[in-house]
Write a structure and sequence with these properties.
The structure holds two protein chains of two kinds. By secondary structure, chain A is mostly helical. Chain A has two domains: 1-30; 31-109, no CATH class. Chain A is built from five helices and two strands. The termini of chain A are far apart. In chain B, 79% of the residues lie in helices and 0% in strands. Chain B has eleven helices and no strands. In chain B, helix 2 (13-42) packs antiparallel against helix 7. The chains are: A mainly alpha, B mainly alpha. At the A-B interface, helix 1, helix 2, helix 3, helix 4 and helix 5 of A face helix 2, helix 3, helix 4, helix 5 and helix 6 of B. Chain A: Pfam families: AzlD (PF05437). Chain A: Keywords: Membrane, Transmembrane, Transmembrane helix. Chain A: The chain crosses the membrane at residues 6-26, 46-66, 86-105.
Amino acid sequence: MNGAWLEPIVAILGLVAITLVTRAFFMIPERDLPMPDWLRRGLKYAPLAALAAVIAPELVMAQGALIQTLADARLPAVAAAAVYYFWRRGILGTIVVGMAVYLPLHIGLGW
Amino acid sequence: MSLPAWRAHLRDPSFRQGARDMLGTGLGIGAWGLVTGVAMVKGGLSTPLALFMSLTVYAGSAQLAVLPLMVAGAPLWVVWLTATCVNLRFVIFSSMWRSYFAHLPRRQRMALGYFSGDVIFVGFMQRFPKPQPDPAQLPYFWGAATTNWLAWQVPSVTGIVLSNAIPLSWGLGFAGVLALLGILLSMLADRASWLATAVACTAAVATFALPLKLNILVAIAAAVTAGLVTEAGERALRRARARGAGGDA
């Protein structure tokens, strides 16, 4: 019993350390770490790749497989959100428009 | 940070600018926080543990990834390795944070790192595209970080406390995906970035079955390669065109 409550706390403390170390990683040392120029240029693409990699499976996959139907509320919602974004360039509106398409289809029709 | 330093930041117009820049994405981050809060309790964490985790770990994607592992009693090293892999993108971001904040004392750099999430990174890089220090950056960062922290933690705590009243089947978490989508679209500046994004999407879906969310790292590596190759190709094309134009004249 004694160990049962301790283990999750140790796990969480470790996760805090991981948040801190990964996010601060290159800011921790006092001196610059040498980095080749091509890598520096290439890293410009890393943030958008990371975002794309987090989003894409959320949009076109379910239970670890590509979705096989177009009757999925996420697809029209993303299309509407993207159209709004390129029309108005506002992120708040993008979320609102996307959810306005998504929620009725998802809750109402079960898409 | 000391109290007078905070007061000076609060009065700074850059602080308010940073806070304003986070309001748009705040709605999506908030919905995502709410869903994460609910998911932690429904997944089997006790309310105090879920509160402790939300307020200290402060990493949405990592929390969701390790939650099923923790509940299933997976070994600690598996939990930690998974979280590290999900967070590896922040290691890459931190190399860019360094060009702005390397002159600050280490404790402050660590604090900046802890509070720098995805949306803060993107907002900051769009506001300060030149990688050199500027006095407006620190108040801007803290304005953005404070807003984002509140936008995440208030709904997350609400979700933990009211977990039984909020059904996950509504799909409110989709608002978080839409917020990230908006940010992603705002970063697509040129042909190379469009191509890199398409490559990243394809790679992330194709390698989704990899353990530890390693598909994110595969996608980053593929996109960086695609971006560099596109840049090199465009340079070669321009040189060839310049030579062609020179020959005609």
